[in-house]
Amino acid sequence: MTAKVRTRILFHSRHLSIYLVRYPEGHKVVPHVDMVSEGRLYKLNLVLVKPRAGGRFLCEKNIFNLAGRLYLFRPDLYQHRVSRIERGNRWLLSFALTRS
User: Fold this and answer.
1) How far is it, in rounded angstroms, from Cα 45 to Cα 26?
2) Cα gap 13→83, rounded to integer Å
3) Which residues pair with 71 in a beta bridge?
4) What is the rounded CA–CA span in Å between residue 96 and residue 22?
5) Where's the Prolyl 4-hydroxylase alpha subunit Fe(2+) 2OG dioxygenase domain (predicted)?
């Protein structure tokens, strides 16, 4: 049986959400664009733990990418995905900011 993604909501308000996410070995995130009902969505993702193999984040356009660990991007405009995690787990601290 494949392990499930575990998401813990650390903070949630109308404009800001903070999540701690664990992606298990074997998981991948298919290419997608995040939908928002209004405004602009920004995500700042900090990879706390990289998997030993796989689990690479790919985005059509980042605002910035710092050493493959810290990404700022517009998930509502640009397609993004995570390649299959071949070995280990991927831990992510994610900040989602919605602006009007």
Assistant:
1) 20
2) 30
3) 45, 65
4) 16
5) 20-94
Q: Which helix (H) or strand (E) holds 57?
A: strand 57-59
Q: How far is CA 28 from CA 51, 62, 82, 98, in A?
A: 12, 19, 6, 25
Which amino acid, 46?
L
**Residue 1 confidence class, pLDDT cut points 50, 70, 90:** very low
35 has a pLDDT exceeding 60:
yes
Structure tokens at 63: 């605002």
First CA to last CA across the chain, in angstroms? 42
- The C-alpha atoms of residue 31 and residue 16 are separated, in whole angstroms, by 23
Residue tagged 């995130």 (tokens): 29
User: Does residue 52 contact residue 87 with C-beta atoms inside 8 Å?
Assistant: yes
* CA separation for the pair 27, 54 (Å, rounded): 10
Enter the DSSP assignment of 14.
S
Q: What percent of the chain has pLDDT over 70?
A: 98
